[in-house]
């Protein structure tokens, strides 16, 4: 069956939901990331093993929006996250050529 495409005015088109569950969860994770104290780790209980992947994706998206690097891992149904340490800058010395 071919696609039927048509142009409709903005007033005729249905409005998208203003707040979705994902954006509420994302805002909650970002808020907790900002509140996290030094030396602490964020623990998120997902409730099921199927939700672990989505939660880790949520942590990654929140970190990107905050322009920070975070490490995350899981154990069972819990997801843990902490700010990543800054990478050490390694200065390579040039080899002398004779």
Task: Write the topology of this structure.
Elements (H helix, E strand, L loop, with lengths): L20 H15 L6 E4 L6 H14 L4 E6 L2 E6 L15
The SSE order reads HEHEE
Which structural class fits the helix and strand makeup? alpha+beta
Radius of gyration: 22 Å
Largest sheet: 3 strands, antiparallel
Give the overall pLDDT as a whole number.
Answer: 86
Distance N to C terminus: 72 Å
Strand line-up across the major sheet: 1-3-2
Total number of β-strand segments?
Answer: 3
Query: What is the beta-strand fraction?
Result: 15-25%
Coarse morphology: extended
**Unreliable segments (pLDDT under 50, ≥5 consecutive)?**
none
- Tally of individual helices: 2
Classify the helix fraction into a percent range: 25-40%
Keywords, please?
single chain, 98 residues, alpha+beta, 3-stranded antiparallel sheet
How would you describe the overall organization of this protein?
This protein has 98 residues and is an alpha+beta fold. The protein has a domain at 42-86. Helices cover 30% and strands 16% of the residues. The protein has helices at 21-35, 52-65; strands spanning 42-45, 70-75, 78-83. A three-stranded antiparallel beta sheet has the order 1-3-2, with helices on one face. It is extended, with a radius of gyration of 22 Å. 9% of the residues are buried. The model has no long low-confidence stretch (mean pLDDT 86).
